[in-house]
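job 3f2a | input accepted
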Amino acid sequence: MLVTSLASSSKGNATLIRSARAAVLVDCGLACRTIEPLLGAAGVRPEQVQAIFLTHEHGDHVQGVGALARKHRIPVICTAGTAHALREKHLRDLTPQTICAGDTVQLADLDVTSFAVAHDAAEPLGFVLHSAGVTVGLATDLGSWDDALVGHLRPADLLVIEANHSREQLLASAYPWAVCQRIIGPYGHLDNHEAGALLAAIAADGRPRDVRLAHLSDQANTAAYAVKTVRGVLAEAGVSWLRVRAFPRIASPYPHKLHTWSSDQLLQQSPLF
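job 3f2a | predicted structure (273 res):
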């Protein structure tokens, strides 16, 4: 499997995930004119995308979904709550395939299973994608986590987990207090320490995994600080077997600069552990 981050920040989110015979997008938070060349840089024509899975209806996850889906006849898959929230603006003249948390959608050799997350949206989801013995777990935009979420994500070989903000930087930022309260609340966003604690819980089984920190705030976080903080939390928990990096906020439209994780890395890295 290949996982390419096209955008991962509070301004836009889109992840391209490919198996041997399928290609899907999780979220489409970039304008159509922006996401098309990024797909091209990844070697994928837009019409080759077999589905766009939406986590929820917020603009940084759906900005380009309507235009891209209509132009290239790509099916959109989301919950009924998300579809209803987007009906008037982004999904007009489109009929999305609606799913519930726990449902699995099969596309060629790729299985996509959804699960509920705690976020202030109509009916938000995370996803676990599985193909040919490799599993990718994706959970962004969640203000809190529990044992059920750990169970959903534990099978993953690659974990794409939100590390949205540093709480100290957030509280010192220019955001209004009401916005800060929403972000740090149980239905807002995970901070770096909370992301580290979630990863430590998942990693309690001792299995090595790759981690990509995602959805970093533009005003209240940096990639270096998020990685340093998460690694610190893991070290305190005695976890040394997770390989942690951060996704870039926006991809560069050049193939050699795209941030792509390949399941082939699992075979190359396994002798090290």
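job 3f2a | The first helix runs from residue 32 to 41.
job 3f2a | closed
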